[in-house]
Specification:
- With about 300 residues, the protein is α/β, with parallel strands linked by helices.
- The protein has one domain: Alpha-Beta Barrel (TIM Barrel), CATH 3.20.20.
- It is about 45% helix and about 10% strand.
- The protein is built from eleven helices and eight strands.
Protein backbone atom coordinates (compact mmCIF):
# COMPACT_ATOMS: atom_id res chain seq x y z
CA UNK A 1 0.00 0.00 0.00
CA UNK A 2 1.41 3.39 -1.03
CA UNK A 3 1.92 5.87 1.77
CA UNK A 4 0.27 9.29 1.58
CA UNK A 5 3.61 11.00 2.28
CA UNK A 6 7.12 9.97 1.22
CA UNK A 7 9.50 8.26 3.63
CA UNK A 8 12.06 10.80 4.81
CA UNK A 9 13.81 12.64 7.63
CA UNK A 10 11.92 15.53 9.24
CA UNK A 11 13.66 18.27 11.21
CA UNK A 12 12.68 21.35 13.17
CA UNK A 13 14.09 24.86 12.77
CA UNK A 14 14.16 26.87 16.01
CA UNK A 15 13.27 30.52 16.52
CA UNK A 16 16.02 32.89 17.76
CA UNK A 17 15.12 35.81 20.06
CA UNK A 18 17.29 38.75 21.09
CA UNK A 19 17.49 40.18 24.62
CA UNK A 20 14.23 42.09 23.99
CA UNK A 21 12.51 38.96 22.64
CA UNK A 22 12.50 40.28 19.11
CA UNK A 23 12.82 37.83 16.22
CA UNK A 24 16.41 37.60 14.94
CA UNK A 25 15.75 37.18 11.24
CA UNK A 26 19.37 36.89 10.01
CA UNK A 27 20.16 34.09 12.48
CA UNK A 28 16.96 32.27 11.55
CA UNK A 29 17.71 32.52 7.83
CA UNK A 30 21.23 31.20 8.38
CA UNK A 31 19.87 28.24 10.36
CA UNK A 32 17.30 27.30 7.69
CA UNK A 33 19.90 27.54 4.92
CA UNK A 34 22.33 25.43 6.94
CA UNK A 35 19.77 22.65 7.46
CA UNK A 36 18.89 22.62 3.76
CA UNK A 37 22.58 22.68 2.74
CA UNK A 38 23.11 19.59 4.90
CA UNK A 39 20.55 17.75 2.80
CA UNK A 40 17.41 17.96 4.95
CA UNK A 41 14.43 19.12 2.87
CA UNK A 42 11.49 18.14 5.08
CA UNK A 43 11.69 20.87 7.68
CA UNK A 44 9.24 22.70 9.90
CA UNK A 45 8.78 25.47 12.44
CA UNK A 46 6.72 26.04 15.58
CA UNK A 47 6.67 22.62 17.18
CA UNK A 48 7.51 22.38 20.88
CA UNK A 49 11.17 23.03 20.07
CA UNK A 50 10.20 26.01 17.92
CA UNK A 51 8.04 27.54 20.68
CA UNK A 52 4.83 27.34 18.69
CA UNK A 53 2.93 27.31 21.97
CA UNK A 54 4.34 30.72 23.01
CA UNK A 55 4.35 33.01 19.96
CA UNK A 56 1.81 35.75 19.35
CA UNK A 57 -0.03 35.90 16.04
CA UNK A 58 2.22 38.76 14.97
CA UNK A 59 5.35 36.76 15.73
CA UNK A 60 3.81 33.77 13.98
CA UNK A 61 3.17 35.85 10.83
CA UNK A 62 6.68 37.32 10.85
CA UNK A 63 8.49 34.00 11.17
CA UNK A 64 6.19 32.20 8.72
CA UNK A 65 6.83 34.87 6.08
CA UNK A 66 10.61 34.54 6.40
CA UNK A 67 10.40 30.75 6.45
CA UNK A 68 8.41 30.85 3.23
CA UNK A 69 11.03 33.05 1.61
CA UNK A 70 13.79 30.58 2.52
CA UNK A 71 11.89 27.41 1.55
CA UNK A 72 10.07 28.53 -1.60
CA UNK A 73 11.67 25.80 -3.69
CA UNK A 74 9.99 22.77 -5.31
CA UNK A 75 12.71 20.50 -3.89
CA UNK A 76 11.89 21.53 -0.31
CA UNK A 77 8.84 20.31 1.60
CA UNK A 78 8.38 22.73 4.51
CA UNK A 79 5.56 22.46 7.00
CA UNK A 80 4.12 24.52 9.81
CA UNK A 81 3.23 23.12 13.21
CA UNK A 82 0.02 24.47 14.71
CA UNK A 83 -0.36 24.35 18.48
CA UNK A 84 -3.78 25.69 19.41
CA UNK A 85 -6.39 25.47 22.14
CA UNK A 86 -9.44 25.30 19.89
CA UNK A 87 -10.62 24.55 16.37
CA UNK A 88 -10.97 28.24 15.52
CA UNK A 89 -7.50 29.09 16.81
CA UNK A 90 -5.99 26.32 14.70
CA UNK A 91 -7.86 27.37 11.57
CA UNK A 92 -6.89 31.02 12.08
CA UNK A 93 -3.19 30.19 12.20
CA UNK A 94 -3.36 27.77 9.31
CA UNK A 95 -5.05 30.47 7.23
CA UNK A 96 -2.09 32.79 7.90
CA UNK A 97 0.42 30.21 6.68
CA UNK A 98 -1.86 29.03 3.87
CA UNK A 99 -1.98 32.55 2.43
CA UNK A 100 1.83 32.55 2.41
CA UNK A 101 1.74 29.42 0.26
CA UNK A 102 2.23 26.58 2.76
CA UNK A 103 0.28 23.39 2.12
CA UNK A 104 1.67 20.98 4.73
CA UNK A 105 0.80 21.31 8.42
CA UNK A 106 1.11 19.55 11.75
CA UNK A 107 -1.69 19.83 14.29
CA UNK A 108 -1.77 18.95 17.97
CA UNK A 109 -4.85 18.21 20.03
CA UNK A 110 -5.94 21.10 22.27
CA UNK A 111 -4.34 20.61 25.68
CA UNK A 112 -6.46 22.57 28.15
CA UNK A 113 -8.77 19.60 28.63
CA UNK A 114 -8.67 15.99 27.49
CA UNK A 115 -10.69 15.43 24.30
CA UNK A 116 -13.11 12.53 24.32
CA UNK A 117 -13.62 10.20 21.33
CA UNK A 118 -16.18 12.40 19.63
CA UNK A 119 -14.17 15.57 20.22
CA UNK A 120 -10.78 14.43 18.91
CA UNK A 121 -12.36 13.06 15.71
CA UNK A 122 -14.38 16.23 15.20
CA UNK A 123 -11.39 18.47 15.86
CA UNK A 124 -9.00 16.78 13.44
CA UNK A 125 -11.74 16.32 10.81
CA UNK A 126 -12.90 19.94 10.89
CA UNK A 127 -9.38 21.34 10.69
CA UNK A 128 -8.31 19.06 7.84
CA UNK A 129 -11.56 19.43 5.91
CA UNK A 130 -11.27 23.22 6.05
CA UNK A 131 -8.16 22.97 3.82
CA UNK A 132 -8.75 20.17 1.29
CA UNK A 133 -5.74 21.28 -0.80
CA UNK A 134 -3.38 20.74 2.14
CA UNK A 135 -1.73 17.78 3.86
CA UNK A 136 -1.79 17.23 7.60
CA UNK A 137 0.20 15.36 10.24
CA UNK A 138 -1.05 14.71 13.73
CA UNK A 139 1.62 15.66 16.28
CA UNK A 140 1.04 13.00 18.93
CA UNK A 141 2.43 14.38 22.16
CA UNK A 142 1.58 13.69 25.83
CA UNK A 143 1.18 17.40 26.60
CA UNK A 144 -2.17 17.24 24.79
CA UNK A 145 -3.22 14.91 27.63
CA UNK A 146 -4.45 12.33 25.14
CA UNK A 147 -2.10 10.13 23.15
CA UNK A 148 -3.63 8.48 20.09
CA UNK A 149 -2.81 4.87 19.29
CA UNK A 150 -3.46 2.50 16.41
CA UNK A 151 -7.25 2.09 16.69
CA UNK A 152 -7.78 5.85 16.78
CA UNK A 153 -5.48 6.40 13.82
CA UNK A 154 -7.28 3.72 11.82
CA UNK A 155 -10.54 5.68 12.25
CA UNK A 156 -8.86 8.90 11.18
CA UNK A 157 -7.07 7.30 8.22
CA UNK A 158 -10.33 5.91 6.88
CA UNK A 159 -12.27 9.17 7.25
CA UNK A 160 -9.77 11.97 6.47
CA UNK A 161 -8.02 11.59 3.10
CA UNK A 162 -5.66 14.56 3.58
CA UNK A 163 -4.34 13.29 6.91
CA UNK A 164 -1.04 11.93 5.63
CA UNK A 165 0.91 10.92 8.71
CA UNK A 166 1.88 11.30 12.33
CA UNK A 167 4.77 12.70 14.31
CA UNK A 168 5.45 10.52 17.32
CA UNK A 169 7.86 10.55 20.23
CA UNK A 170 6.43 7.34 21.69
CA UNK A 171 9.07 4.95 23.02
CA UNK A 172 6.90 2.21 24.54
CA UNK A 173 7.15 -0.83 22.26
CA UNK A 174 3.45 -1.71 22.55
CA UNK A 175 2.46 1.84 21.59
CA UNK A 176 4.80 1.70 18.59
CA UNK A 177 3.37 -1.66 17.57
CA UNK A 178 -0.19 -0.37 17.89
CA UNK A 179 0.39 2.76 15.79
CA UNK A 180 2.52 1.04 13.15
CA UNK A 181 0.25 -1.96 12.58
CA UNK A 182 -3.24 -0.42 12.57
CA UNK A 183 -2.73 1.92 9.60
CA UNK A 184 -1.67 1.26 6.02
CA UNK A 185 -1.30 4.65 4.35
CA UNK A 186 -0.16 7.04 7.09
CA UNK A 187 3.54 7.86 7.19
CA UNK A 188 4.74 7.69 10.79
CA UNK A 189 7.70 9.86 11.80
CA UNK A 190 9.40 8.43 14.89
CA UNK A 191 12.05 9.92 17.19
CA UNK A 192 15.49 8.32 17.26
CA UNK A 193 14.66 5.85 20.03
CA UNK A 194 11.51 4.50 18.33
CA UNK A 195 12.57 4.64 14.67
CA UNK A 196 14.28 1.20 14.55
CA UNK A 197 11.27 -0.43 16.20
CA UNK A 198 8.92 1.28 13.76
CA UNK A 199 11.00 -0.05 10.88
CA UNK A 200 10.41 -3.61 12.09
CA UNK A 201 6.71 -3.21 11.35
CA UNK A 202 6.97 -1.47 7.99
CA UNK A 203 8.00 1.72 6.22
CA UNK A 204 8.88 4.38 8.77
CA UNK A 205 10.34 7.87 8.76
CA UNK A 206 12.69 9.65 11.14
CA UNK A 207 11.95 12.69 13.27
CA UNK A 208 15.50 13.86 13.92
CA UNK A 209 16.57 15.88 16.94
CA UNK A 210 20.29 15.87 16.16
CA UNK A 211 20.38 16.18 12.36
CA UNK A 212 21.76 19.71 12.30
CA UNK A 213 24.63 18.68 14.59
CA UNK A 214 25.18 15.13 13.33
CA UNK A 215 24.00 15.12 9.70
CA UNK A 216 26.12 12.19 8.49
CA UNK A 217 25.24 9.90 11.41
CA UNK A 218 21.59 10.90 11.14
CA UNK A 219 21.45 10.00 7.44
CA UNK A 220 23.31 6.73 8.09
CA UNK A 221 20.82 5.87 10.85
CA UNK A 222 17.88 6.60 8.55
CA UNK A 223 19.25 4.61 5.62
CA UNK A 224 19.89 1.57 7.82
CA UNK A 225 16.26 1.67 8.89
CA UNK A 226 14.96 2.34 5.39
CA UNK A 227 16.84 -0.68 4.03
CA UNK A 228 16.00 -2.75 7.14
CA UNK A 229 19.64 -3.46 7.88
CA UNK A 230 18.84 -4.33 11.48
CA UNK A 231 22.23 -5.95 12.06
CA UNK A 232 23.81 -2.49 11.88
CA UNK A 233 20.81 -0.35 12.85
CA UNK A 234 20.41 -1.53 16.44
CA UNK A 235 24.10 -1.21 17.38
CA UNK A 236 23.97 2.34 16.02
CA UNK A 237 20.80 2.95 18.06
CA UNK A 238 22.77 1.90 21.15
CA UNK A 239 25.42 4.50 20.34
CA UNK A 240 22.77 7.14 19.57
CA UNK A 241 21.23 6.56 22.99
CA UNK A 242 24.62 6.78 24.70
CA UNK A 243 25.39 10.00 22.83
CA UNK A 244 22.05 11.56 23.82
CA UNK A 245 22.46 10.57 27.45
CA UNK A 246 25.88 12.24 27.42
CA UNK A 247 24.40 15.33 25.78
CA UNK A 248 21.75 15.52 28.52
CA UNK A 249 24.10 14.76 31.40
CA UNK A 250 24.94 18.33 32.45
CA UNK A 251 21.52 19.79 31.69
CA UNK A 252 19.72 17.20 33.82
CA UNK A 253 21.63 18.49 36.84
CA UNK A 254 19.79 21.81 36.39
CA UNK A 255 16.11 22.63 37.04
CA UNK A 256 13.80 20.96 34.53
CA UNK A 257 13.33 22.87 31.26
CA UNK A 258 10.97 22.64 28.31
CA UNK A 259 12.14 20.80 25.18
CA UNK A 260 13.19 23.86 23.21
CA UNK A 261 16.03 24.54 25.64
CA UNK A 262 17.72 21.32 24.51
CA UNK A 263 17.07 21.96 20.84
CA UNK A 264 18.58 25.44 20.94
CA UNK A 265 21.75 23.94 22.40
CA UNK A 266 21.86 21.46 19.52
CA UNK A 267 21.46 24.21 16.91
CA UNK A 268 24.10 26.37 18.57
CA UNK A 269 26.52 23.45 18.80
CA UNK A 270 26.06 22.94 15.05
CA UNK A 271 27.69 26.31 14.39
CA UNK A 272 24.72 28.68 14.28
CA UNK A 273 24.87 31.68 16.63
CA UNK A 274 21.57 30.66 18.24
CA UNK A 275 20.74 32.42 21.52
CA UNK A 276 19.77 29.98 24.26
CA UNK A 277 16.88 32.11 25.54
CA UNK A 278 13.25 31.10 25.23
CA UNK A 279 10.13 33.24 25.29
CA UNK A 280 9.06 33.88 28.90
CA UNK A 281 8.16 32.46 31.27
CA UNK A 282 10.30 29.55 30.04
CA UNK A 283 14.06 29.56 30.58
CA UNK A 284 16.84 28.10 28.49
CA UNK A 285 20.17 26.76 29.63
CA UNK A 286 23.03 28.99 30.73
CA UNK A 287 26.32 29.38 28.89
CA UNK A 288 28.21 27.16 31.31
CA UNK A 289 25.84 24.26 30.70
CA UNK A 290 26.19 24.69 26.97
CA UNK A 291 29.99 24.85 27.06
CA UNK A 292 30.27 21.77 29.28
CA UNK A 293 27.87 19.81 27.06
CA UNK A 294 29.80 20.63 23.91
CA UNK A 295 33.12 19.69 25.50
CA UNK A 296 31.71 16.31 26.52
CA UNK A 297 30.60 15.62 22.95
CA UNK A 298 33.96 16.68 21.55
CA UNK A 299 35.74 14.41 24.00
CA UNK A 300 33.63 11.28 23.53
CA UNK A 301 32.22 11.64 19.99
CA UNK A 302 34.77 13.66 18.00
CA UNK A 303 34.23 11.58 14.86
CA UNK A 304 30.49 12.26 14.90
CA UNK A 305 30.78 16.05 14.96
CA UNK A 306 31.12 18.03 11.74
Amino acid sequence: MTKRYPQNIMMSCETPWDENYQFMEPVFRKQVRSVIDKGFNHIYIFGTAGEGYAVTNQQFKEVVSVFRDETNDPDISPNICIIAMSTHQAIERIEIAHKEGFRIFQITLPSWGVLNDEEYIKYISEVCNQFPDSKFFHYNLPRAKRVLLGPEYKILEESIPNLVGTKNLRTEILDIHSIATHTKELQHFWGEYAFPLGCIYGESSLLSSFGSLLPTKTKEFFELGKTKNFEKLFPLLKEMINMQLLFEQTGLEKPEVIDGAWDKMIVRASGIDMPLRLLPPYKGFDEETFDTTVQLLKKHYPDWLE
